[in-house]
Amino acid sequence: LKPFLLKRVLDYLRAPKPAETEGPQPNMFLLVRPVFLMIAVGASGSSFTCPPPGFATSADFNLDTFVSAPWHVQQQMETSYLPKSQNRCVRAEYRRRPRRSFWGYELDVRNFAEDVAPPHTRRGSGSSLCAKIVDAGHGKLKVAPCAIPPILAGPYWVIAYDEQDGYALISGGPPTHVATGGCRTGTGVNGSGLWIFTRKQERDQALVDKVRAIAAQKGFDL
Q1: Are 192 and 185 contacting, i.e. CB atoms less than 8 angstroms apart?
Q2: Nearest 5 degrees, angle CA 35-CA 180-CA 209?
Q3: Does the global pTM surpass 0.85?
Q4: How far, in Å, CA of 189 to CA of 116, rounded?
Q5: Which of 47, 182, 217, 222 is the most buried (most CB within 10 A)?
Q6: Once rounded to an integer, what is the mean pLDDT over residues 177-196?
Q7: 3-state DSSP call for residue 206?
């Protein structure tokens, strides 16, 4: 409850009451309590909805250009499958398959990372991940282990992308969770994650800040 609202409620409770008359008198606290609770809920409630109204992915997305070269992760949201202890030198590679897999996947996905702590053990997804195109023109895919059907795959959305500047903002689907500073995806396997990709491995802080601003404008909690 915000301080000024709490003060008003307390002032009301402490104010002198009219002289008592015969017969039972109402309990003033019981009268005020519902109002107090309504004020508290209103004051603590969120002023936005998740995902934000009009939330959309990249328009006029070119999938072939997007998968033409590796992507390096500059910042990312921690998830259950990639904790902070393993987020060193993370990169992602995508390749169109010559033909669809048994489950209809059209892309191979390769993820690489290293442990933060020495000796920086390398980790990789190998050839176990695949992606299915949901909406190629708007950067919507589904990613999962190649051995399971796409109905169990998780959303992979390209929120913003500029090949000339060499960046992409990736989200594990729409941010449906309300957070302190905006909206977030989940933290499990499917429907989770937020990544800032760049073509160059070397960090360009100005470019990272630019993509962070795009994410904030989209309503993400950073």
Answers
A1: yes
A2: 150
A3: no
A4: 21
A5: 182
A6: 93
A7: helix
